[in-house]
């Protein structure tokens, strides 16, 4: 590839005509807002248990109904979004930080250092992701922090892979050679030239992955290895309500829908970003 | 073969090419010369109706077809068959996982031409390529070979007009000399009309009958190549000539 | 003594050498290195810049090999000028130039931009907001920032429009640094270099004073190169060499004997032996049959 991907700023206007991506972006903004503003938006206090109002179907008082102990499902979904989004953000931040740092160094340095970093990465990639997360979650105390750690451990190697290959190609650009000829030390070259020019595909990947992390976190919770009662978390809500699906569908359906919609929105945005940042679309 | 009157190509209200008159007859070679942003490539693309998103007005006839009003089906029959486009880097336009021979056969079938091995070999030999090259993949041939393959394809498809956009500027000079040699010979032997877009005045001066000099979208000078180069009337043409080493 | 010279340098990536046993002195008055794509000229440039370590042979910087030399001093003395696309696309061009300067000398950016004929206000722009010629000037300003004695110019004008090219050449000709100019463009060499080397398939096939070399090429390849350059109003460029079914210039360099023999119109059985680089009438040429060449 001879073209540089255009900087994000110049790509945004081109993203807008892409209705799908715009739809995804709007959806994400709404989900994030709902999660952030949960204490104000939620119609009931988070942990208010009303045993007498168990398993009420959706109604004017409880739009999404109530669960098996009489908690308002909408309230739990709003608060649950905080947990799920926090997990996604934390996992991606940790993965990207560790992964991109190692990847960029490996890609720029090449040679033996690259081999060492990439082999370590391969070891982590060799484990089935969900299985490794499961094992970790079993060994450690179940909880939100464990989920984050468990998923991040299996997630960062992808970022190393991605950024190493991008950085290796950036490292051959003439501007990197020019900087080397000026005697700029390697860490500065990586920081000033290689890293900023390698970030575009990472951003796309982050957006595409956010949905995946939310799904994985939900899966871990569903298996009882993630967030624990009384924390509100979408995957946990689905798990707890699963036996009720045929009789009291709303307990499961609404949190499930929240997971689906959010994951979908991130994916659509990611695909849109990928398209907008694709140098082949530059005229 | 090519007849253009009052061609204007506008993008978003800005005129990027304004060509009052351009004619290329059979066996003739006309060159459009200019620097980047002069509108020379846009003009070439407009002749085949390939300027997506642009407002094109005026009158364009290529191989007897009115490009601006012809139905898409008729236009497709012209493009690539009777009027062939040759680009700067043909390798980028060749599908990397397909052997050249397969590419050529598909193109010939698409246009209902003779796709026998003998016809393909004849086209290859017309551009001084070993027909054995048809068994190779695009990355296995050099830039000069790929460019000559693009010309061979045009020949096999029965092109009467070749529109070439900087066909040799990505090539080494010795290879350029060959590609130019092939184009000259085809023009003489097959009465091919040749419209050449180039930034290289010296190269153009050796093969073109007539020259159009373009700058910032406008034709600043045109006429017989020998006259334009010997007695340039426009200051920009003079500047171009003086810039030559 | 010359600032930089190559002595029997063989270069390559991985195991396969692409430059074979090249010796080249960067003497005063400019040295041209002429070659087509795949000739190894850019690889040689990278070796001269210390970006690539020779497989064998040495790059001498003064009286020391580059391996042992003081790299800080070397980086101050020798700077590259690559094509205009050698600017970081995300960096304001002023910062690109400033990168070469020590912290206390950042104010010199404006001065350097003026020196290469640019408005200092352009420092705040990014590369894509400049024209090709302006970008090339920025690249030159960056190289000049450290006050080099030698510039290694790798195709400094070949991506530019001709009128812009001429002005960049004027600028380069006016600089009081020594230079090694790497190009496929004979006219550029004629203008900027007193001495020239012609590279074919990673080997020097001819070297000598540029004027002589182009007026009376001794090597058939030098002649082919010269004759292939179109001249204004001249005859169509000659594709000199042997014609064959596959078309002559496509013949790959021979791996034994003279690398040019598969394309050479003068090829003879003797050419299956590798030709030594020998003195001939004030220049050096690697051709068994140089004396048999038609005079032109």
UniProtKB/TrEMBL annotation, chain A:
It is found in: Cell membrane. One of its GO terms (cellular component) is plasma membrane. Keywords: Cell membrane, Membrane, Transmembrane, Transmembrane helix, Transport. The keyword Repeat does not apply. One of its GO terms (biological process) is transmembrane transport. InterPro entries: BP-dependent_transpt_permease, MetI-like, MetI-like_sf, OppC_N. CDD domains: TM_PBP2. Residues 81-270 form the ABC transmembrane type-1 domain. Pfam families: BPD_transp_1 (PF00528), OppC_N (PF12911). Belongs to the binding-protein-dependent transport system permease family. This is D-ala-D-ala transporter subunit. It comes from Nonomuraea aridisoli.
Automatic annotation (TrEMBL), chain B:
GO terms for molecular function: ATP binding; ATP hydrolysis activity. GO terms for cellular component: plasma membrane. PROSITE patterns: ABC_TRANSPORTER_1 (PS00211), ABC_TRANSPORTER_2 (PS50893). Keywords: ATP-binding, Cell membrane, Membrane, Nucleotide-binding, Transport. It is a peripheral membrane protein. Residues 2-241 form the ABC transporter domain. The keyword Cell inner membrane does not apply. Signal peptide: none annotated. It comes from the Bacteria. Coiled coil: none annotated. It is found in: Cell membrane. Gene3D superfamilies: P-loop containing nucleotide triphosphate hydrolases. InterPro entries: AAA+_ATPase, ABC_Ni/Peptide_Import, ABC_transporter-like_ATP-bd, ABC_transporter-like_CS, P-loop_NTPase. Its main location: membrane. PANTHER family: DIPEPTIDE TRANSPORT ATP-BINDING PROTEIN DPPD (PTHR43297:SF2), OLIGOPEPTIDE TRANSPORT ATP-BINDING PROTEIN APPD (PTHR43297). Belongs to the ABC transporter superfamily. This is ABC transporter ATP-binding protein.
Automatic annotation (TrEMBL), chain C:
Keywords: ATP-binding, Nucleotide-binding, Transport. Residues 228-252 are annotated as: Disordered. SUPFAM superfamilies: P-loop containing nucleoside triphosphate hydrolases. It holds the Pfam family ABC_tran. Residues 4-226 form the ABC transporter domain. It comes from the Bacteria. One of its GO terms (biological process) is peptide transport. InterPro entries: AAA+_ATPase, ABC_transp_ATP-bind, ABC_transporter-like_ATP-bd, ABC_transporter-like_CS, Oligopep_ABC_C, P-loop_NTPase. GO terms for molecular function: ATP binding; ATP hydrolysis activity. SMART domains: AAA (SM00382). NCBIfam families: oligo_HPY. Belongs to the ABC transporter superfamily. This is ABC transporter ATP-binding protein.
């Amino acid at each position: 590839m001879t073209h540089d991907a255009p900087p994000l700023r110049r790509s945004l206007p081109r993203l807008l005509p892409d209705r799908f991506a715009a739809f995804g972006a709007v959806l994400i903004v709404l989900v994030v807002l709902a999660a952030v503003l949960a204490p104000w938006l939620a119609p009931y206090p988070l942990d208010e248990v009303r045993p007498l109002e168990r398993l009420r179907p959706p109604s004017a008082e409880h739009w999404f109904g109530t669960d098996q102990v009489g908690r308002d499902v909408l309230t739990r979904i709003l608060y649950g979004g905080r947990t799920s989004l926090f997990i996604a953000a934390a996992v991606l931040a940790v993965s990207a930080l560790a992964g991109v740092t190692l990847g960029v160094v490996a890609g720029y340095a090449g040679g033996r250092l690259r081999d060492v970093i990439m082999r370590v990465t391969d070891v982590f990639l060799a484990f089935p992701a969900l299985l490794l997360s499961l094992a970790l979650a079993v060994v450690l105390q179940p909880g939100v922090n464990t989920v984050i750690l468990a998923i991040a451990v299996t997630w960062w190697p992808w970022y190393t892979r991605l950024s190493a290959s991008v950085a290796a190609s950036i490292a051959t650009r003439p501007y990197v050679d020019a900087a080397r000829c000026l005697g700029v030390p390697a860490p500065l070259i990586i920081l000033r030239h290689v890293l900023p020019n390698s970030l575009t595909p990472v951003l796309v990947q982050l957006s595409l992955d956010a949905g995946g992390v939310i799904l994985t976190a939900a899966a871990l919770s569903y298996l009882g290895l993630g967030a624990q009662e009384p924390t509100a978390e979408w995957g946990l809500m689905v798990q707890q309500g699963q036996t009720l699906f045929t009789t009291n569908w709303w307990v499961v359906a609404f949190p499930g829908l929240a997971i689906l919609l959010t994951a979908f929105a991130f994916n659509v945005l990611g695909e849109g970003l990928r398209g907008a940042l694709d140098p082949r679309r530059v005229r | 073969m090519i007849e253009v009157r009052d061609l204007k190509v506008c993008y978003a209200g800005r005129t990027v090419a304004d060509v009052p008159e351009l004619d290329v007859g059979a066996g003739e070679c006309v060159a459009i010369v200019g620097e980047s942003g002069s509108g020379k490539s846009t003009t070439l693309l407009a002749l085949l109706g390939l300027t997506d998103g642009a407002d094109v007005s005026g009158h364009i006839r290529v191989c007897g077809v009115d490009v601006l009003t012809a139905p898409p089906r008729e236009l497709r029959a012209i493009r690539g068959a009777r009027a062939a486009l040759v680009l700067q880097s043909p390798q980028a336009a060749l599908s990397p996982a397909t052997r050249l021979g397969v590419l050529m056969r598909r193109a010939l079938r698409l246009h209902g031409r003779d796709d026998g091995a003998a016809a393909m070999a004849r086209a290859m030999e017309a551009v001084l390529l070993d027909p054995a090259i048809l068994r190779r993949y695009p990355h296995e041939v050099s830039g000069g070979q790929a460019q000559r393959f693009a010309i061979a394809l045009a020949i096999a498809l029965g092109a009467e007009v070749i529109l070439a956009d900087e066909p040799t500027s990505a090539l080494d000079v010795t290879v350029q000399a060959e590609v130019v040699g092939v184009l000259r010979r085809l023009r003489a032997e097959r009465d091919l009309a040749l419209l050449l877009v180039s930034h290289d005045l010296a190269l153009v001066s050796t093969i073109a009958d007539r020259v159009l000099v373009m700058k910032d979208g406008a034709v600043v000078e045109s006429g017989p190549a020998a006259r334009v180069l010997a007695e340039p009337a426009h200051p920009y043409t003079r500047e171009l000539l003086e810039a030559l080493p | 003594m010359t600032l930089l010279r190559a002595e029997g340098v063989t270069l390559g990536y991985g195991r396969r050498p692409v430059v074979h046993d090249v010796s080249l002195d960067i003497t005063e008055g400019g040295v041209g290195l002429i070659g087509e794509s795949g000739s190894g000229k850019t690889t040689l440039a990278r070796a001269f810049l210390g970006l690539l370590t020779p497989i064998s042979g040495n790059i001498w910087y003064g009286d020391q090999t580059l391996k042992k030399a003081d790299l800080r001093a070397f980086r101050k003395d020798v700077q590259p000028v690559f094509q205009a696309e050698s600017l970081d696309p995300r960096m304001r061009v002023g910062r690109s130039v400033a990168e070469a300067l020590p912290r206390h000398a950042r104010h010199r950016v404006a001065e350097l931009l003026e020196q290469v004929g640019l408005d200092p206000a352009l420092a705040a722009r990014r590369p894509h907001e400049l024209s090709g010629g302006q970008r090339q000037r920025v690249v030159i300003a960056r190289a000049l920032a450290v006050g080099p004695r030698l510039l290694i110019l790798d195709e400094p004008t070949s991506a530019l429009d001709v009128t812009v090219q001429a002005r960049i050449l004027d600028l380069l000709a006016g600089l009081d640094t020594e230079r090694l100019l790497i190009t496929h463009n004979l006219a550029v060499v004629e203008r900027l270099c007193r001495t020239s080397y012609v590279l074919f398939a990673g080997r020097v096939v001819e070297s000598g004073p540029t004027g002589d070399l182009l007026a009376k090429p001794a090597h058939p390849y030098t002649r082919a190169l010269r004759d292939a350059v179109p001249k204004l109003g001249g005859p169509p460029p000659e594709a000199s060499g042997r014609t064959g079914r596959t078309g002559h210039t496509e013949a790959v360099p021979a791996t034994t004997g003279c690398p040019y023999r598969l394309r050479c119109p003068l090829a003879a059985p003797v050419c299956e032996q590798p030709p030594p680089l020998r003195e001939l009438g004030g220049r050096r040429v690697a051709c068994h049959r140089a004396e048999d060449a038609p005079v032109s």
